[in-house]
Design a protein that fits this description.
29% helix; alpha/beta; 24 strands; five-stranded parallel sheet; 24% strand; 545 residues; seven-stranded mixed sheet; single chain; 3 domains; FAD/NAD(P)-binding domain; globular; Alpha-Beta Plaits
Length: 545
């Protein structure tokens, strides 16, 4: 199989044109092309009046070696890589121990799934509820101003990714094509097959719910066990001759589960668990993250600015954007988690706090586009230890709760008023989507001064890239604080904690992923690492008998 890249065709080309383009590009007779499949499809929007579809295709030809020789100097033709996933091993029948997985977001799901597929029968401990019950609790905040601290946008089956755009692309290095394993499992669970080849695949919340359930059922069918409403309140760590080692966990119910291999797939909002781990001596360090607001524009404005006359073309869908500005005060301001045709959602997980996030459905057909406009901050901004970032987040979220009226409404401000430094008193043409509601105010005190200064400078700069971005009626909604984990639970080369053996920090919460795809990939990697260690120990035990 050969991979041919950078094959460009007009946007509205007929289906037969792709085969014809392959034949022409490779100078093949029709009967020499046995077949082909699309590996990736994207579009080139640099010329708005002449958008192009760009393909990478895997082709099967009759005389592969001769064709490779003929095009040996063509960097767009090469052997297609082997993307098949291969398990690192399989559990012995007499396995004495079941691994524990803490958390059932994207990272925990894939860690548990791969362990189950290898025969290790993992036990998953999820502090929140099953996804459909969790959805009801989440709507309780959105519709009734009632927050359940253990069942919300952050906590519960599927993790924070369930209430998101369902974006499935990442810039991680992936030499083993583990991302392909993630996408393949999603398709098997009910995702549209197009996620295997479109350049920026997404699923959307409603589809994610059913997929998460399907993956849970597969884990259970393979002997795994998922326990909901089981919050880990303590870890059992034992001092030994070779240092500290995990021996199990204690649940909030008082139950103790013993285990020598524990995968921590906590998510970035498990603050109480981070505090407990820190108190138990698990090494962690502060890391950079970002804070800011959500911004909303009419989706039509973004479509027109990005796609010109091709705005609304169903082959492209709602347009997205990615923006970066380096402010004079040294801060980087950038768009984060952009959701075309989506909504801004309440994402708090602690009482008395307001947090925003973005979400969209597969159709992406809501009236507004939204994105986080966030400012990078570093441990130098919160220098008092590994948990200081959490405290800063809490301060900003509590301030947002206060500015929003103290009832989980979010504080909001029109962009025009924000740039002029005056409070907003009434909405313009853009209706904010955040539920339960938006309380108009002045956001100047919602973030540190350096962040406000940087965003005020960035918005007009973004307007020069996307005409209308700084429109007066666009709405800012605060605050966006859960961009990534504010700390890293540091691990060594075998993916175990650097000072507690058998403990595998993983995913976003541990500081090793950012988004559904990368979290899933990291879950696979730690599952493999734990499996290797368990197989090594099983082999050593067998030799000693």
């Amino acid at each position: 199989m050969l991979r041919l890249t950078e094959l460009k065709l007009p946007l509205d080309h007929p289906p037969a044109a792709l085969r014809a383009a392959i034949l022409q590009r490779l100078e093949l007779a029709d009967n020499d092309l046995v077949g082909f499949s699309i590996f990736k499809r994207s579009y080139d929007a640099r010329k708005k009046h002449a958008l192009l579809m760009v393909y990478a295709v895997d082709v099967e030809v009759r005389n592969e070696a001769a064709l490779l020789k003929k095009f040996r100097n063509d960097r767009h033709l090469a052997l297609a890589p082997d993307m098949d996933y291969r398990f690192v091993g399989h559990a012995p029948e007499n396995l004495r121990e079941r691994p524990l997985v803490v958390g059932f977001g994207p990272c925990g799901i894939f860690a548990a799934l791969v362990l189950a597929q290898m025969g290790f029968k993992p036990i998953v401990l999820e502090r929140g509820k099953a996804v459909r019950e969790r959805t009801q609790d989440t709507w309780g905040l959105w519709r009734k101003h009632v927050l359940n601290p253990e069942s919300n946008v952050q906590f519960g089956e599927g993790g924070a990714g369930t209430f998101s755009d369902g974006k499935l692309y990442s810039q991680i290095k992936d030499p083993r094509f583990l991302g392909r394993k993630v996408l393949t499992e999603f398709v098997k669970a009910g995702a549209p097959e197009e996620i295997l080849y479109v350049s920026k695949p997404h699923i959307g919340t409603f589809r994610l719910v059913g997929m998460v359930e399907a993956m849970r059922h597969e884990i259970e069918s393979l002997g795994g066990e998922i326990r909901f409403q089981q919050r880990v309140s303590d870890v059992l760590i034992e001092d030994g001759p070779d240092g500290k080692r995990i021996r199990g966990v204690t649940l909030a119910s008082g139950e103790t589960l013993h285990g020598n291999h524990v995968i921590l797939a906590l998510g970035h909002s498990a603050r109480d668990t981070f505090e407990m781990l820190h108190a138990r001596g698990v090494y962690m360090e502060a890391k950079p993250f970002s804070v800011g607001f959500r911004i909303e524009h009419p989706q039509q404005l973004i479509d027109k600015a990005r796609l010109g006359p091709n705005a609304g073309n169903p082959l492209i869908g709602a347009a997205d954007y990615k923006l970066v500005h380096h402010a004079k005060n040294g801060r980087a301001v950038y768009s984060f988690c952009m959701c075309p045709g989506g909504t801004v959602v309440a994402a708090a997980s602690e009482p008395g706090c307001v947090v925003t996030n973005g979400m969209s459905q597969y159709s992406r057909n809501e009236r507004n586009a939204n994105a986080g406009i966030v400012v990078g901050i570093t441990p130098a901004d919160f220098p008092s230890g590994p948990l200081a970032g959490i405290e800063l987040q809490r301060e900003l979220e509590a301030r947002a709760f206060e500015l929003g009226g103290g009832n989980y409404d979010a504080p909001g401000q029109l962009v025009g008023d924000f740039l002029e430094g005056k409070p907003s008193t009434r909405l313009g043409s853009v209706e904010p989507s955040y539920k339960p509601g938006v309380h108009l105010t002045d956001l100047a005190t919602a973030l540190p001064d350096y962040a406000i200064e940087a965003i005020r400078e960035a918005l007009p700069a973004f307007d020069r890239q996307i005409k209308g971005f700084a429109m007066k009626d666009a709405v800012l909604t605060g605050v966006e604080t859960r961009t990534s984990s504010p700390l890293r639970i540091t691990r060594d080369d075998d993916l175990q904690s650097i000072n507690v053996k058998g403990l595998y920090p993983a995913g976003e919460g541990a500081g090793y992923a950012g988004g559904i795809l990368s979290a899933g990939v990291d879950g696979i990697q730690v599952a493999e690492a734990a499996a290797r260690e368990m197989l090594r120990e099983a082999a050593a035990n067998a030799r000693s008998v």
